[in-house]
Fold this protein.
Amino acid sequence: MKICIKALVLALFWCFLISGNLPAENIVTSTVQDQDEVQLTVYNQNLGLVKDNRSIPLKAGQGELRFMDVAAHILPASVQVNASNKESGFTVLEQNYEYDLMNANKLLDKYVGKTIKIMDWNKYQDRKEIVEAELLSNNQGQVYRIDEEIYLGHPGYKILPKVPDDLIAKPTLTWLYSNQASCRQQLEVSYLTEKISWKADYVLTLNAADSLGNLSGWVTLDNQSGGTYRQAELKLVAGDVHRVQQKKAQQNMLMKSMQDSRAEQFKEESFFEYHLYDLQRKTTVKNRQTKQISLLTAEKIGLHKEFIVTGNKNAFLHKIGNRNEQVPVQVFINFENSRDNNLGMPLPAGIVRLYKEDSAQSLHFIGEDTIDHTPKNERLRLLIGEAFDLVAERRQTEYRQISSRLHESAWELSLRNRKQEAVTLSVLEPMSGNWQVLDASHPYEKQDAFTLKFTVKLKPDEEQKIRYKLRTGL
């Protein structure tokens, strides 16, 4: 045991020693110019997986590799490095993520106590004047010593002899590595980054009869990760991937490489308990860019329009009084996500915006709603708005409290159709506890354990009144 501990201490000391005293020829810098290909997998949870493949010449022995041009919001604990040439014995001994990026103040901080040059332009004599100054402080302004006098600030450009070694211009992964052979090494570096996400947006255009619609879907990709991915193989994952309190914890690499030669924009397939959308061409995703890519197009989707009046379950437990209360008539559009209905692919969560042409064939926005991740052969239901020409009013005609937990109430619901065509209205009364219909003027059904439903057909300009009496108990 003592021998193992001594060996470990010596190994750590040796790594520390060489990491601080490596000769310049053993320090290799890799930029995006070394990149052979990059794969980008984006989740709709503000997370992306980057696979960066680069060809980098490395010498035998131990050295330092500065892997630049990575995402600014990288999760360092998620980094994995794989070498294609296993026989070369490439091993990462230590990893550092350098994010102390240079700026004017940080550069000046490194030169406190040292002499720098200040160049000022004399506009009256049209010439440049350079003075040497010792920077005494860079705390809330500069303090200089020039010719044994103290200057609180000084006009002109500050000139520094070089950039300090411990300041970098962009986020960099730095590895202390061991390599057994001098060769050009093919490295695949995988890491997770935050500040990149995607969402789906849909446009559904209705026909004149509201019976058919054309659906187009778009992927909206928002990249704020601090990295640019040029000619990337783009993949999107739809589904809710569990993360540990959304903190920067180590993540498992979820993706595997896939190839396909089909010509569609995105190839969709099941992946674990999610769905994967693989763009069938390469694309460049720039930093601070919002990109939209076509996801799907479907024509002549069968639609069903539905008018629903929904009550209030708390209304049956107390006296309201004999007054009319107007209730909105909500409009829904329903359709099946099935192959028979010209769809049948898993739809990622997003916003569906609906449009329709008027009599002059001018397109107008008529409403929008969100959808969850929807598998194939499932039904979608979109709330579009409230009907203008359908009126619903209700009033309480009787109320009696039988006991502290038992109530009876009678209701009258007036339904009026001011349209030029016949419509069908569904009246949904949400219930709580135990309930019973004592009397009703129209047929009804028990839709589920807590919902009473009336279905009423109204001719043009017709009014009908539904009267019903309920007993409800907690």
